[in-house]
């Protein structure tokens, strides 16, 4: 029996992109990437909102969705809960996380459905290699554009990276980006890009331990 404050390490691995640690503190699962606290599952509402806010803006059936960043699996699980989604690709930089998902260690994905494809890659490469393919692209690879887990991810939030993400969508497809803090400057950058439409900056308040934290999801549609 794990006491509330007892720390249990579920997995630890080092690789080209630093060390990743999966651990459980009482009933809470935590993910540490290269020494940076990435996330836990005390409250998963904003990770799930990343999926629901994007998918409710999608039209039609047989949706193809690309998720950048596996995390603890909550975003991918929410994508798969939508019966319109027939194909869900999750691109994760850390091979250890993909392996732990296969072992059932991620609380959001205790079982891997057939519609889910997990692959180890840089999401920037995946986006560049699939123009016009996706109905929705969901990016949750950092704590937001102002708090990067890996400095190399900065390009995802610059104009060329955002243009590549939009180009990976079919016309009318939806891009959604998660942030641990409000990111109005990211929304402004997206809105200024040719081909971006219906840009919204959604602030998502969460109460943790009696304190309010404002997370955000920035959404945009590929025009056409």
UniProtKB/TrEMBL annotation:
Biological process, per Gene Ontology: polyamine biosynthetic process
Record keywords, A-Z: Polyamine biosynthesis
Superkingdom of origin organism: Bacteria
SUPFAM superfamilies per UniProt: S-adenosyl-L-methionine-dependent methyltransferases
Name under which the protein is recorded: Spermidine synthase
Annotated organism of origin: Modestobacter versicolor
